[in-house]
Amino acid sequence: MASQAILIDSACAPSPELLSKSQVFQLGMKIKLDDQHYTDGEDLDLEHFYGQIDKVKDFSATPPLVRDIKKTCEDLKKKGYSSIISIHVSSKMSKLIETCENAGDMVSGVDIELIDSQNLSVGANLIAERVIELIDIGMPTNDVISLLPEIRKSSYMQISLSTLKYPVKNKRIGRVQGLLGAMLKVRPILGLDSDGYLTTLTTERGGNRVVERIAENALSFLEKRPHNRKICMTWGFDENHQQVGRVFQSFSQHIGKNGDRHFNVSKSRMWPTLACNCGPEAYGFAVYGEEHPLG
Hints:
With 295 residues, this protein is of the alpha/beta class. 41% of the residues lie in helices and 27% in strands.
């Protein structure tokens, strides 16, 4: 059987558990903090990033260049891999898949299969995790690819922004809109629509109500999805860690009333890639569940 590598970009927030697997590798987005440039997951550690993000005037995350992706694929080829499954953030939110296609055309002797997760961050991580599980049990790659529509539908992610300061700072939303939201103490809950676009699922006033709503939404999603359930959590600052912990606590208390309490749970601090886009004062909570077992 051909040796196969799994490549996951940093916008998919690959968990430490996934990256600990010998055949799983990361593709870091390019992070800019004022005039300093980094590659997420390579030369930018979390402690440095979160220590600097409030001090810089300008920050951004952009896809790696074609030459960077080409080199990554060539390096995997040198390690003995003859095929690569490359899993990426939603193509509706990034040009990364298009860039990877261009890079792949320049690499010979390696079969590269690109997967559009149609998701992001912890939601995309759960999709990557399920893809890898199916491959690990010996399911042929083509069969896994055919299951992607169901795998995508089985992942549900929510992100809470504690403040609109950072989306205003990096021009994701207008200053007037940010000031209005701050005055009204309105906190959006973001998620992905069926086409893979980031959208506002709902808004709530106050952090306590946001916590309750995220737990309620996750429970509702899993109500008729009892198989292969998973949870993935992420956070920016320490207070966000506490907030997502409260979501998990509320979720866990209620899920036991309706089904199995046992879940695979992964958690890690928010990758700079996502923090640069939505702001580091945020947290994400994603759940995965299948209506019928896929493998």
